[in-house]
Every structure is written in C-alpha cells, then in structure tokens.
C-alpha cells in the first residue's frame, strides 16, 4: 500500500487516497476531476498512482469550497482558472459568499420564529408566506426595507465628511446601499451582501463583494477608509478595523459606545422596553478597545430629533415610529432580539403611548433638538 506522503522523486506529495480522506470526498470524485482537467495531480508514484502537490491540494480546496457553495463544475472551472485571482483572493471571495449565506440563514431563522409565533396564536399562515421562507424573497424583503427609511442624515454626514478631511480616495467598508458616501471624492465601496449591492442607486460608487476582515486591497491603497453603522455586523470587528487601518492612511468609523456604566439606560427604548438590546451587544468590543486597535480618538455624534436616517436611535423624540413594522424592519436590532421580545416591546410601548405614560416619563425630551445616545465617531 502506498504511503500517505511520498518522498523521493515526488517529495511532499500526497496519495489520492489520503487526499480523498482529508477532503471528505471519494477517490472516484478525484479521478473524475482529473479526467475533466479540473484538478490534475502533478506527479505519479513509482507504481503509477496519482500524487498531489501542495499546490494541487490548494486548487482542490478551492474547487470543493465552490462546489459546496452550489457552483456547477463549469462555473468552478472558470473561477479557479481566473488568472487575475490568487489563493488569497479566492479565500476572500469565499468568505464573502459564506457571510452572505449566513445572513440568509439568519433571516430564515427569523421567518421561522415569526411563523411559529403566528401559529401558536392560531393565526393562519398563507401559502405565499410559507413559500417566501424558502426563497430568496425572504432576504430581499428584509434587506429591501433599508432604502425606505435608511438614508443620509445631513447633520451626521457633515460630521463624518469633516473627519475625512482632504482625503480624495475613500474606501467605504460595509457600505450597504451607499448612504454617507461623499459625492465629491473618489469612493470605492465594499459590501458582502448581494441584496444590499443590488439596491445601490445607479451612478453610485463601484462596489466590491468582500468582508471587512479580508479587504482585497494593497496596503495604504486609499487616503481614508470609512465605515458607518456597520461594525456591529462584522464577525470580527477588531480584525476588520485593523484591515481598514492597513489599506488606508486614515480611518473614520461611526459606531456605538458600550463602555459607560449603565449605557443601556441612555435610551428610553432599551431602558424601558427592550432590555434584550444589552445581550445583542454583549460580545461587541469596547469603544476603548476599538479605538486602541486603530489609534483613534472618539467624538460624540448627537442624533437630531428629526433624524432622516432611520437608524435604531433615530426616533427618540418620535416614539410612535417604533410601533410601525416598516420602520422596525430596517433596524437589525429587532431581528437580533427575536420576535418575542419585539412583540412584547411594541405592545408595551403602544399601551404607554395610548395611556400617556410614555409622555409623562419622558417629558424632558420635548425641548431637545438632539440627544447623545451613544453614537461615536472614531477618527484615526
């Protein structure tokens, strides 16, 4: 029987059996890939068996990864034979595809939970609603809510653009549908979600499918890298911030401060109706830790009472907005806390608005034009 790793004339090559075992595929599959020219082992043993080099194994890894993401053999061949794409670029592309799949899975879980809640209450779930759960329309509906209420707030934008300084080349990481992208600079956008990329308006900055943690750019490719209300969506925020620091001379990030004791009590919505919000950010890095990662200073970003951008804190003086389903759908917090917490919070808020209890409890807000609710701009 041939050894796992062959030495001599084909040193550091692996037998077809060992490669099949490590990859979790059949020897027959590997033989087929060889026959169609998809992955051809570069050597043979003295007995004539196929032998795979490290480069062969790397190519096989790419082939199998794309296959498990649902690509056909012809599509896979075009991807792995692309002369402009190296191993690192393939890894970054695969990561982006997997993150998008994760987002779709999260959205499906949310839809299932909503249907279970509806059935528990004896509500009828239509065939159309049942089928939406299994199709791409589900994530389109959730992601599609963003353009309706999420847009550039001029006063917040002014603070962000002022922080950009004289930068001419800007990388917008986690760009979404393109809010806050300055029109007077050369902008390149990065967004892993295809749903979000499709919703970018005509004429907006070119958008690359990639994740913050693996930016496909050379060191110091941009004057500044910016990220607006997106860091909390990243799998590894610190790694993403360091990547921004790597590819740009300066970094500007709009994020959230959880360092201050009792931070969740700054906003009446999380204090009185949605305590689960604290758990959503339980593993979120501290503001100090994020600032240290990129050598940044922090500036408060007040939220205007009539904020045009429907972010989570936007309606602090307009509480009735939070009982509107289309408003909540454009806020990722509600998906994260789940339907039970959302329904309880909305029901309780609705009752307090009707009874006047909310107005009595929050009477001090009536005369404020803006509020500090924890938004911070990191500038490095």
Automatic annotation (TrEMBL):
Q: Where is the HTH merR-type domain?
A: 13-82
Q: Which Pfam families match?
A: MerR_1, Methyltransf_11
CDD domains named in the record: AdoMet_MTases (cd02440), HTH_TipAL-Mta (cd01106)
Q: Which GO terms describe its molecular function?
A: DNA binding; DNA-binding transcription factor activity; S-adenosylmethionine-dependent methyltransferase activity
Write down the SUPFAM superfamilies for this protein, in alphabetical order. Answer: Putative DNA-binding domain (SSF46955), S-adenosyl-L-methionine-dependent methyltransferases (SSF53335)
> Coiled-coil region(s) at which residues?
none
- Under which name does UniProt file this protein? MerR family DNA-binding transcriptional regulator
């Amino acid at each position: 029987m041939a050894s796992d790793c062959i030495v001599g004339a084909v040193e550091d090559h692996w037998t077809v059996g060992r490669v099949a075992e490590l990859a979790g595929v059949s020897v027959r599959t590997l033989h087929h890939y060889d026959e169609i020219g998809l992955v051809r082992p570069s050597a043979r043993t003295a007995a004539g068996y196929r032998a795979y080099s490290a480069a062969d194994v790397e190519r096989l890894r790419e082939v199998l990864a794309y296959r498990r993401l649902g690509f056909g053999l012809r599509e896979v061949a075009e991807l792995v034979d692309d002369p402009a794409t190296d191993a690192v670029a393939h890894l970054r592309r695969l990561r982006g595809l997997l993150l998008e799949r994760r987002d779709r899975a999260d959205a499906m879980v949310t839809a299932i939970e909503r249907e279970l809640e509806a059935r528990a209450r004896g509500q009828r779930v239509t065939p159309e609603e049942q089928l939406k759960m299994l199709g791409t329309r589900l994530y389109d509906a959730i992601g599609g809510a963003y353009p309706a209420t999420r847009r550039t707030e001029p006063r917040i934008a002014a603070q962000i653009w002022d922080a950009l300084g004289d930068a001419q080349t800007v990388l917008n990481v986690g760009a979404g549908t393109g809010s806050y992208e300055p029109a007077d600079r050369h902008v390149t956008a990065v967004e892993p979600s295809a749903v979000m990329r499709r919703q970018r308006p005509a004429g907006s900055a070119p958008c690359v499918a990639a994740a913050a943690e693996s930016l496909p750019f050379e060191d110091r490719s941009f004057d500044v890298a910016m990220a607006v209300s997106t860091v909390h969506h990243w799998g590894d925020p610190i790694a993403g911030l360091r990547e921004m620091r790597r590819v740009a001379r300066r970094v500007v990030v709009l994020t959230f401060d959880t360092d201050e004791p009792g931070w969740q009590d700054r906003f009446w919505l999380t204090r009185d109706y949605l305590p689960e919000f604290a758990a959503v950010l339980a593993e979120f890095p501290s503001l100090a830790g994020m600032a240290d990662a990129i050598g940044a200073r922090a500036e408060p970003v007040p939220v205007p009472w009539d904020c045009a951008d429907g972010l989570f804190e936007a309606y602090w003086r307009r509480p009735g907005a939070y009982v509107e389903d289309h408003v909540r759908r454009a806020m990722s917090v509600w998906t994260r806390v789940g339907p039970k917490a959302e329904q309880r919070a909305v029901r309780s808020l609705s009752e307090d608005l009707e009874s006047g209890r909310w107005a009595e409890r929050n009477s001090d807000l009536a005369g404020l034009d803006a509020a500090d609710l924890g938004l911070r701009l990191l500038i490095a």
